[in-house]
Amino acid sequence: MLDPVKIGILYSTTGPYGAMGRDAFDGVEFAFHEYRNAGGTRVQPVFFDPHADLAAYLEGARSLIRDSGCRHIIGTITSAARKEVLPLVEKHDGLLWYMCPYEGFEANENVIYIGGCPNQHLIPLFEHLVPRFGARPYLVGANYVWGWEMNRLARELVANAGGTVLGERYLPLEETAVERIIADIAEKRPSFILNNLIGPSSYAFLEAMHELGKRDPAFLPENCPVASCDLQESELDEIAAGAAIGQLCAASYFDTLDSTENHAFKARLRAFKPETRRVSCIFASAYTAVTMCIAAIEASADSDPATVRRQVHGRTWPGLFGDMAVDPVTNHAALPFLLGRINSERGFDVIAARPPLAADPYLTGGSARREPRLKVVS
């Protein structure tokens, strides 16, 4: 009889990105419910909540690895948290399953990346926005690696398109004083805005842009949209009623996705928890990470990360993201691109889509140049 396998779950359900952490936790919970419901007993979760404390992520990873014997950890939301725990995962030759969109420029044999990188979200987003609204954006971001790197790439995309970035501003996590940024946007009149803020900062910014649009129609979403790559369905409940309608978000999944697999998935979820809110990309990615991890472990003689990694590379994984393949060179999943517009029901209407895109985390494009390329498509 095979020994039980414990996998660590490391998400923060409180703090500035707590809504995303709760979505991830719920996705994990549903995946394990289905596993146990199908008779699965070998793989067991061990939970640790760091409560948005960066130092506690390292403490949690250490506890999961050392005290619980977890060689696989599914978790972390922010890049700062991922980078905090990664050296420890490497030291113990574990495997971190990371399922959030991130800024790219990383490929680690000790990480399976199920969240999108810029060629899967930011570049297709700009290929949609620039021909329709112009190449004169304004960039806002959280004052850490996600905001810095996403805006750096955006600057290069705009330069490649012959445009001009009209402004670039940053806010600390949880900062909600956005008045000076809004005044600068009103003065400079950009063609669109890239929003890389997180949590309460993003919610306050979207509410302030709504008020600006009421004062000046040039800033209504149909004229000057605010576009994000990290906004989730569950977060829309945190924004004042109606304030985000019409704004845009790029993702690899939305609750409203019209596919046979998604309809079946949501029916199973409603049977499990009838009161469940809309499913977000974070929920879907955490669910997918768990199901992939369990299936790869059960197909292996043991839970050794190298063996599990070969199982992940050796097949495609049908599910909410289509037939997902993980590149054995970069450990990144191929993911679809979807563009959603926020509707009056606090969800997203899908207005543009592309089939799964192979990840290119270093934006090499098959060459040695690490430079994002903007190919305009209508």
UniProtKB/TrEMBL annotation:
SUPFAM superfamilies linked to this entry: Periplasmic binding protein-like I
Gene3D superfamilies: 3.40.50.2300
InterPro entries for the chain: Peripla_BP_I (IPR028082)
Pfam families per UniProt: Peripla_BP_5
Domain of life: Bacteria
Classification via PANTHER family: ALIPHATIC AMIDASE EXPRESSION-REGULATING PROTEIN (PTHR47628:SF1), PTHR47628
Listed name of the protein: Amidase
Annotated source species: Rhizobium rhizophilum
